[in-house]
Design a protein that fits this description.
Blueprint lengths: L1 E13 L3 E3 L2 E3 L3 E4 L6 H14 L4 H4 L12 H14 L2 E11 L9 H12 L3 E6 L5 H4 L3 E12 L1
Parallel strand pairs: 5-6
Antiparallel strand pairs: 1-4, 1-7, 2-3, 5-7
Helix pairs in contact: 1-3, 3-4
The chain binds magnesium ion (MG).
């Protein structure tokens, strides 16, 4: 068994959509990104790639590649699962923390967990915390996410 950790953050900007764990959340701002800016899913991808010993998300899905412009991050997670399986590692469980000051996200917890679990092929726990009004998250300049994924050999 192995574990991998993942972290991601994205800036928040006006006129952008806010997609977190594959859920489009109503808000006056969204994440500025090359892909759909789904920080939570990106953290899970990096954690999985870490467990599989396959480097990081930027190496697999470069943000300079037009193919990934506006990409659905759940599709990227499914592809990361395929590549990890190719390297002999199957995800077993994921725990995540989404750090976001606003909006409140508790109502979306089950939908995010279901989306991530469906793409990962393993149970996913989703936790939320705020930035306590300090730092870039607390000032609502951005959102961040942490994830741990455990994987077993095939
Ligand atoms: Mg990202």
């Amino acid at each position: 068994m192995r574990a991998g950790v993942g972290y991601d953050s994205h800036r928040l900007g006006e006129g952008e959509s806010l997609i977190l764990g594959g859920v489009r959340v109503e808000h006056d701002r969204g994440t500025v990104a090359h892909s759909d800016g789904d920080v939570l899913t990106h953290a899970v991808i990096d954690a999985l790639l870490g467990a599989a010993g396959l480097g990081d998300i930027g190496g697999h899905f470069p943000d300079t590649d037009p193919e990934f412009a506006g990409a659905d991050s759940l599709d990227l997670l499914r592809e990361a699962v395929r590549r990890s399986a190719g390297a002999g590692w199957v995800p077993e469980y994921a725990d995540t923390t989404l750090v976001c000051q606003a909006p409140r996200l508790a109502a979306h917890r089950e939908a995010m967990a279901a989306n991530l679990s469906g793409a990962l092929g393993a149970p996913v726990n989703v936790k939320f915390t705020t930035g306590e009004h300090i730092g870039f998250v607390g000032r609502e300049e951005g959102v961040a996410a942490h994830a741990v994924v455990t994987a077993r050999t095939r």
